[in-house]
Amino acid sequence: MAGGEGGRDLPSTPTWAVALVCAVIVLVSVAMEHGLHKLGHWFQTRQKKAMREALEKIKAELMLMGFISLLLAVGQTPISKICIPAKAGSVMLPCKPKGGDKSGGGDGHRRLLWYPGEDHRRFLAGAGAGDDYCVKKGKVSLISTNGVHQLHIFIFVLAVFHVVYSVATMALARLKMRRWKKWEQETNSLEYQFATDPSRFRFTNQTSFVKRHLGLPSTPGVRWIVAFFRQFFASVTKVDYLTMRQGFINAHLSPNAKFDFQKYIKRSLEDDFKVVVGISLPLWFVAIFILFIDIRGLGTLIWISFIPLVRRLKLS
């Protein structure tokens, strides 16, 4: 096998294989760029300024991820040649070392990547140079070549998942808001205008909206559980929508004003999406801080998930 234990190098690879892989990568990239351009043009023709700005943020995130990938690819070997003492390499580990090797590979026989059926030989494409370089000095790599590769994948998945999660939330919200369009059309009927006539006095505790939100769902601690399960079913009912609509009109407009509350909420959702979809610098530092404190035995990923709940309880 030419190219050593890491596999064949590029000069030993058939040209048709290299050309095929490059063609697929180029076609996928061009198709993605063309699709984003068409989507931006569609937002512009529909006069959706907030959605177009959100799309520009997604493009910026893709460019940032490409630059990060380039830095990790170029710096993979130099980073692995940064040597640290074996004692420092065994401090603040996120997982228990495999095979009882607490030094992180100080004896030069670490199992970086094993493949069954291959006589247990170590395979790591483009790897091992920096690791062996530090082993000869009696030290360990700051991050091994395999570790840099896994970090590369982790950062990429983290950013992509954030964008996908934001887009999925936006899509599900728009899907649920389609029901509200029918309720908004009902507000133009004479029956609704008669029912919401300000001259018809009604006690607050007699309304359907108040009856729905009083009782057990209003108990502190219980209402968060109720709200969690209610979001999967009828989080906003017809009476909730009409009550919020009437309250908004009474607070900001004249009582008998003609106003499309559903369209207003849709625009507000798009404005919020424009802010949420971007990965800001503080968010990157939060991710780095979580990586720093993710030490074995602390249960970081468990207790840190309760921070938003505690913060919400204090605000309420």
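the 2nd protein, sequnce then structure:
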Amino acid sequence: MNLQSPFSSTHSFNYEHEWKYDVFLSFRGKDTRYGFTSNLYEALSRKGINTFFDDDGIQSGDEITPTLVKSIEESRIAIIVLSPDYASSSFCLDELSHILHCIKRNNRLVVPVFYDVDPCDVRHQINRFGEAMAKHEQRFKNDLNKVQKWRDALHEVANLSGYHFKHGKGYEHRFIGNIVDNISKRITRRPALHVADHPTGLQSRVSKVASLLDVESNAGVHMVGIYGIGGIGKTTLAAAVYNFITDHFEGACFLENVRENSSRHGSVHLQNILLSEILEKEIKLGSVKKGTSEIQKRLCQKKVLLVLDDVDDPEQLKAIA
């Protein structure tokens, strides 16, 4: 996963996540505007999730408007509703390409919803998606690079973890509820950490650490250490990385001043904080051994982001991580 190249002078690198919208909804209006997508929008809104939903006819013509571009760039998460005729719209394909460039490559979350669509059809552009792309190749035969960009975007979004709904295989309202609950957990976990009053020079370092952590992978454990003399910005970098990738995790915790707090209160105090923050309920442990066991048992099935600030003893890692 290469996160080095997407940043340009036209995109701000926001370390503290002050978004205008929590969610940007991308969809083909003719397919789902008055059905699934409007119901999803209402469910997100009832949960207090600020969602951009184009209900004012901004989607007109063949190209996305500056208003939509700005809305995408100001959104924290994008949900792509891939319906049967999604690929027939050059507008939707342009929007998808921009979302993947602006949101996913800046390590924000993109969630595909395969609505009565087989993900393989999207990935390999077969059946309805294949027919749509063949028509685009005829229409844009003088600009096949554009069509290839759309093909690459469809293949990329189909490989992301998302949701699959097929009529007759479950209740739509429950399907929507699962999406909303998951999005809610990711955006209401806690306010972003303060990074610095005037952060400079962090962009490439944050991207490098994020790439090492491989946040889109669901396999195994990824651990990165940041070390160096005091005062060079290790904690600032860690906080910026935490803000940058936290939406990709089911639970997250930033444990500050591990060395000092471990010395003053013991490792069990840090274990209590860790479990309480991630499980969102008060945890009281009796011993470090009990805490280690509880961390393994309760978090083994969760995708968790844990940042330990100022570690100076391997025993602290053993007890907490």
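The chain is about 45% helix and 10% strand. The beta strands are 21-26, 51-52, 75-82, 109-115, 163-165, 251-255, 304-308.
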